[in-house]
Amino acid sequence: MKTLLQMPAVRECTAVACSFNDGGCHAPAVTVAAAGGAASCATFVESSVRGGIAEITGTVGACARTDCVHNANLACTAESIQVGSGVTASDCLTYQPA
Ligand code: SF4
User: Which residues does a 6 A CB cutoff place in the pocket of ligand 1?
Assistant: First the structure.
């Protein structure tokens, strides 16, 4: 069984209300969902618990936005993504409809 060393980084996330956000995303592998016309980070959570791993930068684990040019087999092939306010508080701003 193989594991992936390199997944697209969440290089910027302005959803500061998210528990995984501490000067950026620290979730090991976010899921991006197809929410209406948006590509919304489904890992976004508001909680009193600090989420993620402080030493790592968040990455994209899976993405349901199959119409994005960067999407291949429900995975993201972009070098990195930006997350921020759009239709939702935590949209993938790198989403580019084909
Ligand atoms: S860039 Fe496209 S494929 Fe990658 S996470 Fe965003 S919406 Fe999904």
Answer: 32, 39, 60, 63, 65, 68, 70-71, 76, 78, 81, 92, 94-95
